User: Which sequence fits this backbone?
């Protein structure tokens, strides 16, 4: 995959030269997953909400609590206090309480794939710059850069490799321009921008962060550790069984047999024969 790169942008009146730079296809050349991207945007927008909006109920509205007219005889509908939701100036029924929780979650894999989809979708609007630091914090040079790229009237996202005060100072007073570090970029930032200027360092950092090779290595390491632990436990149990002397084995067997016989004796209960009292009384009568 190739992206447009900026060669010259430091001088005030010098024209900007563009060329191409090759990047990783796994990050910038993937087919966009629109369903996942829309889900990620919804989650990020929902998590931005404060959830502090609140209205007053009929019990919180100021005013008299007396019954506005008597129950019968007026011809009007029966009502209580004027703070009821049916009246103008009364409370609101079923409104926001200020306790709503709007937080939503995305898994790490979904976040990574959504960011890759957003970068691939915006690949044609990305400019890679090697000399953003050379702006020296001058807003005039930053404006010349945007005018040379013909993106001065668009919403622009500047992605830096490391947080730099000079870059922030150069673009800080320009409307519709946001400067962000590569580690804080998400799918919402990328998808909502009209054009992106990414430093060359940030491109490398993003490729390392988003490529699947790193995750596969971690998974393989975890699997190896699990296999080693399982093999060790099996070897230890086998060695214990083999190394046990014959005397202990015989003792263990005898102990098991004794326990079994005891259990059998306790389980088997002989029923007691109870003779009826009538026969005993008959024997006593005969003796007498």
Assistant:
């Amino acid at each position: 995959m190739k992206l447009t790169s900026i060669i010259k942008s430091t001088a005030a009146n010098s024209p900007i030269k563009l060329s191409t730079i090759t990047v990783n296809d796994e990050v910038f050349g993937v087919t966009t997953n629109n369903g996942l991207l829309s889900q990620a945007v919804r989650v990020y927008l929902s998590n931005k909400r404060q959830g502090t909006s609140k209205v007053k109920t009929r019990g919180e509205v100021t005013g008299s609590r007396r019954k506005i007219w008597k129950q019968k005889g007026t011809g009007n509908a029966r009502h209580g206090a004027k703070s009821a939701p049916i009246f103008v100036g009364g409370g609101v029924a079923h409104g926001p309480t200020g306790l709503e929780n709007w937080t939503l979650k995305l898994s790490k894999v979904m976040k990574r794939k959504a960011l890759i989809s957003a970068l691939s979708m915006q690949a044609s609007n990305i400019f890679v710059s090697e000399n953003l630091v050379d702006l020296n914090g001058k807003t005039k040079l930053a404006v010349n850069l945007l005018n040379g790229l013909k993106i001065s009237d668009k919403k622009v996202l500047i992605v830096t490799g490391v947080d730099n005060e000079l870059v922030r100072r150069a673009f800080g007073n320009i409307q519709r321009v946001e400067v962000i570090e590569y580690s804080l970029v998400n799918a919402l930032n990328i998808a909502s921008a009209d054009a992106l200027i990414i430093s060359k360092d940030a491109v490398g950092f993003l490729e390392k962060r988003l490529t699947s090779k790193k995750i596969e290595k971690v998974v393989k390491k975890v699997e190896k550790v699990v296999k080693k632990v399982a093999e060790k436990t099996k070897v230890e149990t086998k060695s214990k069984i083999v190394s046990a002397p014959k005397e202990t084995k015989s003792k263990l067997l005898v102990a098991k047999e004794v326990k079994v016989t005891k259990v059998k004796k306790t389980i088997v209960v002989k029923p007691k024969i109870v003779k009826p009292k009538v026969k005993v009384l008959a024997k006593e009568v005969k003796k007498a």
Notes: Residues 255-268 have pLDDT under 50 and may be disordered. Residues 246 and 252 are 10 Å apart (CA to CA). The domain at 2-48+104-210 is CATH 3.40.1370.10 (Ribosomal Protein L4; Chain: A;). The radius of gyration is 40 Å.
